[in-house]
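Suppose you are handed a protein chain with no further information: no name, no annotation, nothing but its sequence. What can you learn? This example shows the usual starting point.
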Amino acid sequence: MGTAGGRPSSSSSPGPVVSGAPGTPAPSASAPTSPASPAPAPPARLVTGQPVREPADRRWCEKVTLAFHNTGGRPVRSGTVTFGSHVIGALGVDWSTVESTHDLPAPLAAGARAERTWTVCVDAWRVPLGMHVETRDVSVRWE
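A reasonable first move is to predict its three-dimensional structure. Written in structure tokens, the prediction is:
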């Protein structure tokens, strides 16, 4: 077996193996040994469609369908949707707005879509004969 610089030239000798191109410095003891951690996923971002309204069997209620799409990188764990139902008179006058809050269809994974229908009602005494409700306003909060 020949020697070069006082060390055996055989590849069968035990010892540490350092990969890399010749002339590349060996990793230092202070360098992290774990692979680089991936960038954190962007937060959840919930996009809603326009509410689709259908009459219910009582004049003070409506069925409201809303589509959701989580365009963020994390799931939506929980949240609420608030509907603003307008009380409309026989001549089309908007007399008042009554809010109601409902739970979101959660959890909703990143990139997932969902659709939900709620029966949204106001107190019957708020909607006299000849009047009806129209749920026009929607706001959504999520975590």
